[in-house]
Specification:
about 100 residues; alpha+beta; 5 helices; 3 strands
């Protein structure tokens, strides 16, 4: 009973973040597979690099992921999930599971 009363408040918190399906998928990929270049994320999702880049821009802005330039190849940028992104993903999974 207590869980049922608390649940709507938590759902409203997630609605305020307004995360897209692509952004959620990116977080799941980074959590499961570790840091990845954007082009690999695009391949995994079956979407364009531009779509992934736009989603990553938003995730960087809300501090769920970070971009890090490779020391060996400055053209290569790795995307990593941050603590806030992992926390969001865990809480999201808790809500979905009920």
């Amino acid at each position: 009973m207590i869980t049922e009363l608390a649940r709507p408040k938590r759902i409203k918190e997630f609605e305020a973040i307004n995360i897209s399906r692509n952004q959620l998928s990116i977080l799941k990929i980074l959590y499961s597979h570790g840091p990845q270049p954007a082009h690999k994320i695009a391949l995994m999702l079956g979407v364009s690099r531009a779509a992934v880049s736009q989603s990553i821009d938003i995730l960087v802005k809300i501090k769920f992921v970070s971009r890090k330039q490779s020391r060996q190849d400055r053209r290569s940028v790795s995307i990593s999930i941050l603590k806030a992104g992992t926390s969001f993903l865990m809480q999201y999974d808790d809500i979905i599971r009920g």
